[in-house]
């Protein structure tokens, strides 16, 4: 079982290879994000490769032997995790193969190739691409990097929380977008270990409520279809390790529409000059819509987890 010390150890391993991203106070602005209390934005959109995913991928890389690294690494991704793995391959001069679904933006595929990765398009959604990646790992002897259900990846993602609470120890609430659950697993585990009273709110798209439905059912639920443009928040199925961590550490999950994510992305651009993809704007969308209402004078932090221009007119 993962513990805080695993996340702290990950921070020591990866700190020379990832960016300590800004924790920015969302003020002054024309349109306030929260009428009461202070809002901070953790700008993982400025992370190397454009999202928090580099943290988990680099930590996973350092768990491999030199022989495993030499044989190559492989994953499936809607874009951001693939970029993190491509970066890890570039760091270690290890051949990286990334399977992507057809709903991946072409710009993400081109960026993957720019890091030297071999890109293979497979299936309509991430789950289809993932089956192909697992098959390739077995056939070719490559090391598979799961985007969210790997302890080393979760520990790497949790280092985001260590930076937040080191910069602002009195944060009362964290808002975190959920795809498969790797980010919120690592962040919530670290946050609750440091401050058991902190509130953790997960945010999913209405069109991909994977963990929301799983928590309601008390077991993993596979969605029959995906109906969101935020493809990096859209696996049909999470994993047991993520569900168990989320059950213990996440207080609530709220759902936001694509249009609400678009509005939040526009707010980030026009108010803060931050270019966020839809998934990167999801956490803030929960606040702007009033679906999350902090108590009077509470201080909260929304993770802007990925860069992009798909939400900017």
Write the layout of secondary structure elements.
Layout: H1 4-14, E1 23-25, E2 39-43, H2 53-61, H3 66-71, E3 73-76, H4 80-92, E4 96-100, H5 106-114, E5 118-121, H6 126-140, E6 143-144, H7 151-167, E7 173-177, H8 182-194, E8 199-205, H9 210-217, H10 240-249, E9 252-256, H11 258-272, H12 278-288, E10 300-304
Parallel strand pairs: 2-10, 3-4, 3-6, 4-5, 7-8, 7-10, 8-9
Antiparallel strand pairs: 1-2
Q: Top keywords for this entry?
A:
6-stranded mixed sheet; 4-stranded parallel sheet; 2 domains; Rossmann fold; single chain; 313 residues; 12 helices; alpha/beta
Brief digest:
By secondary structure, the chain is of the alpha/beta class. The protein has 12 helices and 10 strands.
| Overall morphology | globular
- The sequence of SSEs as H and E is HEEHHEHEHEHEHEHEHHEHHE
Separation of the first and last Cα atoms? 44 Å
Q: What is the name of the CATH architecture of the largest domain?
A: 3-Layer(aba) Sandwich
CATH topology of the largest domain: Rossmann fold
Helix/sheet category: alpha/beta
Strand content: 5-15%
Total beta strands: 10
The strand order across the widest sheet is 1-2-10-7-8-9
Q: Could you list the spans in which at least 5 consecutive residues all have pLDDT below 50? A: none
Based on CA atoms alone, the radius of gyration comes out at: 18 Å
Outline the structure in words:
It is a single chain. By secondary structure, this protein is α/β, with parallel strands linked by helices. It folds into 2 domains: 4-52 and 151-304, 3-Layer(aba) Sandwich (Rossmann fold), CATH 3.40.50.1100; 54-144, Rossmann fold (3-Layer(aba) Sandwich). 44% of the residues lie in helices and 14% in strands. The protein has helices at 4-14, 53-61, 66-71, 80-92, 106-114, 126-140, 151-167, 182-194, 210-217, 240-249, 258-272, 278-288; strands at 23-25, 39-43, 73-76, 96-100, 118-121, 143-144, 173-177, 199-205, 252-256, 300-304. A 6-stranded mixed β-sheet has the order 1-2-10-7-8-9, with helices on both faces. The mean pLDDT is 95.
């Amino acid at each position: 079982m993962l513990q805080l010390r695993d996340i702290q150890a990950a921070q020591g391993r990866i700190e020379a290879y990832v960016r300590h991203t800004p924790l920015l106070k969302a003020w002054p602005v024309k349109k306030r994000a929260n009428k009461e209390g202070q809002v901070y934005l953790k700008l993982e959109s400025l992370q190397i490769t454009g999202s928090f995913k580099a943290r988990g991928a680099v930590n996973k890389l350092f768990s491999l032997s030199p022989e495993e690294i030499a044989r190559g690494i492989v994953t499936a991704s809607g874009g951001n995790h693939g970029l993190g793995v491509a970066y890890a391959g570039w760091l270690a001069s290890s051949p990286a193969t990334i399977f992507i679904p057809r709903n991946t933006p072409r710009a993400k595929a081109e960026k993957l190739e720019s890091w030297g990765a071999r890109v293979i398009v497979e299936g309509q959604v991430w789950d289809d691409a993932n089956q192909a990646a697992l098959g390739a790992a077995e056939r070719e002897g490559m090391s598979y990097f799961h985007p969210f259900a790997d302890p080393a990846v979760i520990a790497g993602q949790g280092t985001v929380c260590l930076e937040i609470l080191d910069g602002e120890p009195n944060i009362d609430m964290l808002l975190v977008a959920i795809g498969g659950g790797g980010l919120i697993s690592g962040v919530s585990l670290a946050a609750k270990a440091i401050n058991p009273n902190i509130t953790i709110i997960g945010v999913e798209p209405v069109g991909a409520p994977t963990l929301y439905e799983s928590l309601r059912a008390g077991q993993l639920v596979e969605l029959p279809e995906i109906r969101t443009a935020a493809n990096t928040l859209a696996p049909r199925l999470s994993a047991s390790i993520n569900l168990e961590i989320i059950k213990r550490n996440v207080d609530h999950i709220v759902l936001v529409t694509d249009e609400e994510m678009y509005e939040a992305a526009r707010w980030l651009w026009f108010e803060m000059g931050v270019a966020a993809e839809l998934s990167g704007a999801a956490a803030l969308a929960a606040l702007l819509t009033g679906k999350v209402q902090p108590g009077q004078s509470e201080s909260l932090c929304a993770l802007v987890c990925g860069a992009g221009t798909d939400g900017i007119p």
